[in-house]
């Protein structure tokens, strides 16, 4: 499932009202599960389902659709701050045998706005799924987000473009991650080289606080001057 903004909001009608539920403490990490094979109901459909239970692609979609208004509201709040914010967020959720979301984190994201990502996660934690077939399960769903109006996109950088500038901030990075790996960090670099916005993702739900620390530490870093259009870069640690 891919969700993106149309050129106007009106195409969504009453389906996506502009509401946003932010805040709330993250849930505790999920309990250990016995090993289980990954099952994907339809190849390349963008939805992965794992564990002893199962949900169909349409059931996963409907669960996320139940919080679509909240997700839209979160993204709109981000656009008010950064009009050219765009990217993909991939939700990974644990669904109880009753259809409630037990835990959630962003498996991948390059949206680059930590507060928006946190708002979206909070909305997803309130999603209601149908009862999975066969017991508790997990679901993975990517969503694409892009502005409703044509805006100038920032220059796309690679990690190589900023690697030399990261030497001075390694202590801050190490202070947040403590040697852990599997994190990603997306930055928007303003003209002049200041990091204006950042968003990070953890390798699992238990390391969300470290991702939040990383995104917060990145604000204000000085990187090479990208020129008048600014730049966007995703780093991995």
Structural summary, described in words:
This protein is α+β, with helices and mostly antiparallel strands and 237 residues long. It folds into 2 domains: 15-20 and 38-145, no CATH class; 155-236. The protein is 24% helix and 23% strand. Strands 1-2-5-3-4 form a 5-stranded antiparallel β-sheet, with helices on one face. Strands 6-9-7-8 form a 4-stranded mixed β-sheet. The two termini are 28 Å apart.
Number of distinct helices:
6
- Uncertain residue ranges: 1-44
The domain tally reads 2
The quaternary state of the protein chains shown equals single chain
Q: Helical content, roughly?
A: 10-25%
Which sequence of strands runs across the widest sheet? 1-2-5-3-4
Overall mean pLDDT: 83
Topology:
Layout: E1 38-39, E2 48-50, H1 57-65, H2 68-81, E3 87-95, E4 101-109, H3 114-124, E5 137-145, E6 155-157, H4 159-162, H5 170-177, E7 184-189, E8 195-201, H6 208-218, E9 231-236
Parallel strand pairs: 6-9
Antiparallel strand pairs: 1-2, 2-5, 3-4, 3-5, 7-8, 7-9
Helix pairs in contact: 2-3, 5-6
Question: Characteristics of this structure?
Answer:
237 residues, alpha+beta, 2 domains, five-stranded antiparallel sheet, four-stranded mixed sheet, 6 helices, 9 strands, 24% helix, disordered N terminus
